[in-house]
Amino acid sequence: MIHRSLSFIEDNLRNDIRVDDMANEVCCSQSHFSRLFRSATGFSAMDFLRKRRLSLAFVDLLKRDRRVIDLALDYGFSYEQSFIRAFKKEFALTPGRLEQHDRAVPLTLDIVGPDLYGGFSRQPGFSIQAMFIPEQQFCGVNYAAQHHDNEELLVDKVGFFLKYSSPKIPDCLEGRRVYTVDGFLPHRKNYFYFVGLRCTQRYKPGPGFACLTLPSGIYYNYRTKFKLEDGVTIEQQKLQMMHTFYQSIIQRNKVRFGSFFFHRLEHHKGSGTFSLWYQLQDLG
Question: Exposed, middle or buried: residue 129 (CB in 10 Å: 0-12, 13-18, 19+)?
Answer without folding.
Answer: middle
